[in-house]
Write a structure and sequence with these properties.
Radius of gyration: 22 Å
Strand content: 15-25%
Number of strands: 16
Largest sheet: 9 strands, mixed
Helix content: 25-40%
Distance between the termini: 28 Å
Length: 368
């Protein structure tokens, strides 16, 4: 079956709904479901839902419960293939069959090997008409964290950088405000849509950031805060440590770090993870291993807010999937820290550009 213009419009609405759950539903993806039926000759959304906070219940079961008998003979719009396996909850494909829906429109197949086409096959075997890959490109962006976890064993990484007009990202050992309030608010929104925000120890020591979401009404959507700190230099007086019992805070370090420092952080509520160094005799945190450690926690979307050193390390290892670059009209001067070299963007495609206040925001995407 092929999609109609109405299918595409309703799937676009479902995708918009699903984005509201980004950053809230891990370890599960933020899936949205609409139940639509024709009433008096016009399509009407009789129920809608998005994956609940923490990943359960799933969108389909919530929407079907809301629709009740109205689901029979209706069309379900789902932004990711309905699950077909028994986990902590029964399969959503079973729920759609039991509810008697006549048609299911799916944006994207689920790469999870426990599903991977089985959900769609199960629906068809039950006599339900299925339309696949409706606005699949948009759905792939929205579910990039889930796809990266399943396909690559690491989270989807978005690098956020703010750069001055003369190409600098700050001054050495000095906190510098580069962008204006509108761009800063956009960064808080990026945090709210991420499972975790990551910085390096250099940024932690220089800026002493909170890394929380402080937009009105969204204060409860702060992501997990993660510091890559090979030698455990993060002091107990840091804002991240002092607020660790209020907002989840993790430190990823190496096996050679001082156990006494780890005990101090743990006593303050910080979770300390130890990973192997990048190579035998090397220094620093092994980025690949660190990202796999985050996947073990169920984290699929990471916002990288570290300084240029950490950014270059991630870029050099092809671990950045998306870049959000803010460029200020202001200049820092000759004592600034160099930002992204032009060649760093060579493997990325520009996907958007516009003004946020006085600053220019440009987004880039690496095609896998």
């Amino acid at each position: 079956m092929t999609a109609t213009d109405l299918d595409r419009r309703l799937m676009a609405a479902a995708l918009r709904l699903g984005r509201r759950g980004l950053g809230l539903t891990w370890p599960n993806p933020s899936v949205a479901c609409l139940i639509v039926r024709e009433l008096d000759g016009a399509p009407v959304i009789v129920a809608s839902a998005v994956t609940a906070r923490g990943g359960r219940p799933h969108a389909e079961t919530q929407a079907l419960a809301e629709a009740g008998p109205a689901a029979r003979g209706a069309t379900a719009y789902v932004t990711l293939e309905p699950c077909s396996h028994f986990g902590k909850t029964p399969p959503c494909a079973d729920a759609l069959v039991a509810a008697g829906v006549a048609r299911v429109v799916v944006a994207l197949g689920d790469p999870d090997p426990r599903v991977a086409g089985r959900g769609i096959a199960q629906l068809r075997q039950a006599g339900i008409a299925v339309v696949e890959n409706v606005l699949a490109d948009s759905a792939a962006r929205d579910h990039a964290g889930h796809i990266a976890r399943v396909a690559f064993g690491r989270p989807h990484v978005t690098l956020k950088l703010a750069q001055s007009a003369d190409g600098f990202v700050g001054r050495r050992n000095e906190r510098v405000a580069i962008t204006g309030p509108e761009a800063n608010a956009r960064v808080h929104m990026l945090r709210a849509m991420s499972d975790a925000v990551v910085i390096g120890i250099g940024t932690a020591l220089t800026d002493d950031p909170l890394l929380t979401v402080r937009l009105p009404g969204l204060e409860g959507r702060s992501p997990v805060r993660v510091v890559f700190d090979a030698d455990l230099r993060l002091p107990a007086t840091a804002a991240l440590v002092r607020t660790a019992r209020e907002v989840p805070t993790q430190v990823i370090t190496t096996w050679g770090a001082d156990p006494a420092c780890a005990e101090v952080l743990s006593a303050a509520g910080v979770v300390v993870h130890r990973v192997t160094p990048p190579w035998l005799g090397g220094t620093g945190v092994n980025l690949h291993t660190a990202l796999r450690e985050l996947v073990k926690l169920g984290i699929g979307r990471v916002l990288l807010e570290g300084g240029p050193t950490l950014a270059r390390a991630f870029l050099a290892r092809a671990l950045v999937d998306e870049i959000v670059l803010f460029e200020s009209p202001n200049r820092i001067g000759p004592d600034g820290l160099a930002g992204l070299p032009p060649e760093a963007l060579a493997s990325f495609t520009r996907t958007g550009e516009g003004l946020v206040g006085v600053d220019r925001m440009t987004t880039y995407w690496r095609e896998r």
